Amino acid sequence: MILKIISLFLIFMAVLALFGRLRFPKLPGKTGKTGMKRCPDCGRPLIGKGPCDCGGKV
Fold first, then answer.
1. How far, in Å, are 5, 11, 13 from residue 1 at the CA level?
2. pTM of the model
3. Which residues fall within 8 angstroms of residue 45, CB to CB, at 6 or more apart?
């Protein structure tokens, strides 16, 4: 009985993950694995819309 409940839970979670991917395939403004934009010159993560402290173009 426990094995049946665990297997149904895992199937349910897999179905939820599939629907989540269909609804949100990519979030706008996110790049890379961590989802943070980085400065092309120094590679530091950028927070906000302003330029980087190193003076690089963004």
1. 6, 16, 19
2. 0.42
3. 34, 36, 37, 38, 39
